[in-house]
Design brief:
With about 100 residues, the protein is mainly α. It is built from 6 helices and no strands. Helix content is about 70%, strand content about 0%. The longest helix is centred in the middle third of the chain and has 17 residues. Keywords: DNA recombination, DNA-binding, Transposable element, Transposition.
């Protein structure tokens, strides 16, 4: 929190009031992950699962090439997300939720 205040003050000194306000307003949201158990921090901080899913969808849409309309692209993406949710990959635990009871 103190470091964020220093950064905001430095931004104010550089006449970047909007950026300083953004730092001050966003610090609480930025540090939300520290409320979780320390073992979860790395997985909360990174978005590897989302990136992997996006790569999979991108790969599928490139195979098709062009879509006649946005609805058909949405149907392809939805079908892929449904497959992932139903498969072993979608049922794997990313975080150990039993630690949240602590």
């Amino acid at each position: 929190m103190e470091k964020a205040g220093d950064v905001a003050a430095k931004l104010d000194g550089m006449r970047l009031a909007a950026a300083a306000k953004c730092v001050r307003d966003g610090i609480a949201e930025t540090l939300t992950c520290t409320r979780f158990p320390m073992r979860h921090w790395r997985r909360i901080r990174t978005n590897n699962a989302i990136e992997r899913l996006n790569r999979e969808i991108r790969r599928r849409t490139r195979v098709v090439g062009t879509f006649p309309d946005g609805k058909s692209a949405l149907m392809l993406v939805t079908a892929r997300l449904k497959y992932v949710a139903d498969s072993e990959w979608g049922s794997r635990r990313y975080l150990d939720v039993s630690l949240l009871g602590e």
